[in-house]
Amino acid sequence: MRNLKTKTIGGSLAAALLAGALALGGATGASAGVTGCSASGGKQEAGAVIGAVLGGVIGNQVGGRHATGETVAGAAVGAAAGSAIGCEAQKSRAKNAGTYSRNGYRLYNNVSPASYDRIGDTFVARSGVNLRGAPTTNSAKVGRLQAGERFQALAEVRGSDWILVGQNGVGVGYVRGDFVRPAGGRYAAY
Fold first, then answer.
1. 90 with 7, same domain?
2. Largest alpha-carbon pair distance within the chain?
3. Count of domains for the chain
4. Where would a tag sit more exposed on the chain, N or C end, judged by fewer CB atoms within 10 A?
5. Residue ranges making up the domain that contains 75
6. Both 66 and 139 in a single domain?
7. Do residues 80 and 121 both lie within one domain?
8. Distance CA 153, CA 133 (A)
């Protein structure tokens, strides 16, 4: 009796692993969900693997005698849930990684600090324009705004026409003020 239970648990685990691999292989091949996180890192894939195994084991146990379909379904649902949780963990880490605080603003490491006057409004790019790592045209290009793209204007650099561009409250670069305008009608003369 004891050997039968061990074989069933071992078989369940093997079936769950196989189902998880199949579920992950299909999702990865279609580049859907499991590898599509906007933040870099490996937490999404690890979450998908763990979720697939756990979901497969649960599906196998729920399925009873002929649990192949339930094992595969459990693995697929587990992979999706684990992938979503892992992606959120990656985003949280990416939001705080590579940043520092200066003059009351959080900036990415490739963005130099300056003296600021707070804006805190939404602006729109008038045309395609490069983002710079410092408020000069000689500084490194760190990104780009497309024509019509809306962005957070965190602050204006004192004594210049440069604007600190933000993403989720973090300064990601500078753009010259003559290439952008405030969004909305209240700044029509700007």
1. yes
2. 85
3. 2
4. N
5. 2-96
6. no
7. no
8. 15
The b/e string for 117-130 (b: 16+ C-beta within 10 A; e otherwise) is eebeeebbbeeebb
**Which residue in the block uniquely carries the two structure tokens 């200066």?**
102
For 156, the 3-state DSSP assignment is strand
| 173 close to 145: Cβ distance less than 8 angstroms | no
Q: What span, in angstroms and rounded, lies between the C-alpha atoms of 24 and 33?
A: 10
Same domain, yes or no, for 106 and 33?
A: no
Q: Which two tokens stand for residue 184?
A: 């909305």
Per-residue pLDDT of the chain (190 residues; tens, 9 = 90+): 455 444 455 555 555 454 445 444 444 433 345 556 666 567 778 888 898 888 888 888 887 776 788 888 888 888 888 888 877 776 665 555 688 998 889 999 999 999 999 999 999 999 999 999 999 999 999 999 999 999 999 999 999 999 999 999 999 999 999 999 999 755 444 4
